[in-house]
Design brief:
Elements (H helix, E strand, L loop, with lengths): L1 H19 L5 H12 L1 E2 L19 E3 L6 E5 L6 H7 L10 E2 L13 E3 L22 E3 L6 E2 L13 E3 L4 E2 L15 E3 L8 H20 L1
Parallel strand pairs: 3-5, 5-6, 6-8, 7-9, 8-10
Antiparallel strand pairs: 1-4, 2-3
Membrane topology: Single-pass type I membrane protein
Protein name: Leucine-rich repeat-containing N-terminal plant-type domain-containing protein
Subcellular location: Membrane
């Protein structure tokens, strides 16, 4: 009898949370639709991106109490075999391609972005990503971004996880990354070709210098 009561009480809590959960905000829904418009989606993963409540869309997680989008989880798991087991230089038929629309700036409460295992080989990491002041997790690995890492990423003061591995970067690791004092995970593997060790050593030395400056 007690187990039945516990079960019924649990169902009541679940249903109540669904009723109380706020729907997403119109401006954030519009921002996501603008992002979708700039993306080629061969596997139709974004087919659920329609209707008023973007909190029910694939890859989108909202804060139940506010309705604001906090997670954007668009890592392409269909692409894991192609990119990880074979090579990130092999283009998968399942990967997102295209441009990352600046409309994402409308998602001001994002704490989590995962765009890994896609094919952004024709573009660079957008500088505007450095404007997400609440961002804690950023995974752009195995997506073949080109060009230089934007120094604006150093503005992500709350970031603790940064994975930019298996990209095609040029230039050097921006010293501004040393400003991310909460960073506990950094992966740049296979992103700078044969020079990656020198880049990483230089960055580690810079980071240690920054830590010493903060301590004094």
């Amino acid at each position: 009898m007690n187990n039945v009561l516990v079960f019924l009480f649990s169902l009541l809590i679940i249903q109540s949370s669904r009723i109380l959960a706020k729907e997403c905000h119109k401006e954030e829904r519009d921002a996501l639709l603008s992002f979708k418009a700039g993306i080629s989606d061969p596997s139709n993963l974004l087919s659920s991106w329609h209707g008023d409540d973007c909190c029910n869309w694939w890859g989108v997680l909202c804060d139940n109490s506010t309705g604001y989008v906090v997670h954007l989880d668009l890592g392409n798991q269909y692409n894991s075999y192609w990119s990880v087991e074979l090579s990130n230089s092999i283009s998968s038929p399942y990967a997102f391609t295209g441009e990352i629309n600046q409309s994402l700036l409308g998602l001001k409460h994002l704490t989590y972005i995962d765009l890994s295992l896609n094919d952004f080989s024709t573009t660079t990491i957008p500088e505007f990503i450095g404007s997400f002041e609440n961002l804690q997790y950023l995974n752009l690995s195995y997506s073949s971004f080109t060009g230089e890492i934007p120094p604006q990423l150093g503005n992500l003061s709350k970031l603790f996880y940064l994975d930019l591995s298996n990209s095609k970067f040029t230039g050097k690791i921006p010293p501004e990354l040393g400003n991310i004092s909460n960073l506990i995970f950094l992966n740049l593997g296979r992103s700078y070709g044969s020079d990656v060790e020198d880049h990483v050593v230089s960055f580690i030395l810079f980071s240690l210098k920054q830590c010493n400056n903060y301590a004094t």
